[in-house]
Design brief:
Layout (H helix, E strand, L loop, with lengths): L4 H8 L2 H23 L4 E12 L2 E12 L5 E3 L5 E5 L5 E3 L16 E3 L4 E7 L1 E2 L2 E2 H9 L9 E4 L7 E4 L2 H8 L8
Antiparallel strand pairs: 1-2, 2-7, 3-6, 4-5, 4-10, 8-9, 10-11
């Protein structure tokens, strides 16, 4: 069976439509890929760690912020990392500069490239002050511990919120914390 010239002309009228649809889909896919790789992605972890310094065990609360995306992220100051309490009425709580160990913590402002990590170390016992005790006494009386979150605010985008590690929850719920460590 032979196809006539008129039938070929009719079939060829669909070619521009298929070409336009293909071009439109290619643009949509490329925009999706471009947009999805530009998202900021941070992984936040926390915990209680013990360092042996000069023969003495020192307890630290550690917060690690890792850039798991392809876009560079900046943490402008130590104020970018806070705690939050409350279910409906949320309260943001700063860490306190006197507790942060500048020798172990990353320098701020901090630039995080792909798979780079910023670390913040809070010395729990610092000169007769106990960070866990003070946090518990000042902030946990009116709030449930289950609402405690770590908030990281990068230079652009929305804040990232994660639950604190169970080792921190355990320290906050223990009843025998003394003020002097």
């Amino acid at each position: 069976m032979c196809i006539s010239i008129e039938e070929w002309k009719f079939i060829n009228t669909f070619a521009p439509w298929f070409s336009a649809i293909g071009t439109f889909l290619a643009v949509c896919v490329s925009l999706y890929i471009s947009h999805s790789t530009r998202k900021i992605a941070l992984t936040i972890s926390s915990g209680i760690f013990i360092f042996n310094e000069n023969g003495v065990d020192e307890e630290y609360l550690a917060i690690n912020v890792t850039n798991t995306g392809y876009r560079t992220v900046f943490l402008n100051s130590l104020m970018c990392i806070t705690f939050q309490l409350g279910l409906f009425k949320k309260t943001n709580i700063g860490i306190g500069h006197k507790y942060i160990d500048p020798n172990k913590s990353s320098a701020f402002p901090c630039k995080l490239g792909e798979n780079e990590t910023a670390q913040l170390f809070v010395k729990i016992n610092n000169g007769g002050l106990n960070w866990i005790h003070n946090f518990k006494e000042e902030h946990l009386k009116n709030h449930s511990l289950s609402t405690l979150r770590i908030i990281v605010c990068p230079n652009v985008g929305k804040p990232f919120k994660v639950k604190v590690d169970q080792s921190i929850i355990k320290e906050l719920t223990s009843t025998n914390i003394n003020k002097n460590g």
